[in-house]
Amino acid sequence: MKHFRFCSSDNDLQHCSFVTEESPKRIKFAVVRDPIDRFLSGYADKCYPKRLPLPPERCFGCEQNLSCFVETLLSNLRNITRDPNATKYMETSHFAPQTWSCNFKEHLHDYIIIKYESGQQGIRNIAFQFDDIFRLAGVPNYHRSEILKEMLSEFCYVRHVFYCFHQFHFIFRKVTRLQLEKLSTQHLAQI
Predict the structure, then answer these.
(1) Mind telling me which InterPro entries this protein's record contains (predicted)?
(2) Which of 32, 106, 184, 185 has its CA at 20 to 30 Å from residue 20's CA atom?
């Protein structure tokens, strides 16, 4: 089993089988997102932050050049697949496939999968899915209702919409989804 871990191992169990053996009632869930949306959101957050200029090393030093960023990211991801001890950068850790952290290949059936959705109805769907998980985990009703109320609040939705708008408005002027899909299709087979 290849196991990629990007954080220190101070608070990490090394593999899912051990967690299952030690905690048979543990509820495991993962929030998954459309890979293109996940990439754009991460790229906007890391490479187009509210405060400019970026530190020179941020975004692999590509200075908001998407082609440079994607090429460097793919090179780093390839290096990690060949050598798990290869240097790992914050950006590489952030953009690596989610399956690398969860070992979905062997343990997907152990997880409750929540699909990330945007928009008011998407936030509502996610909030109720989280509430179901909290109920299964035995979280008291008063905590669950407070969390659900906060997740469904107008403030939460407005904050989410504003955050998304801020992130994407620079990028969508430069990149269309179609261009990004073409770029990712060309390179994903190489990883």
Answers:
(1) Chst-1-like (IPR007669), Sulfotransferase (IPR005331)
(2) 32
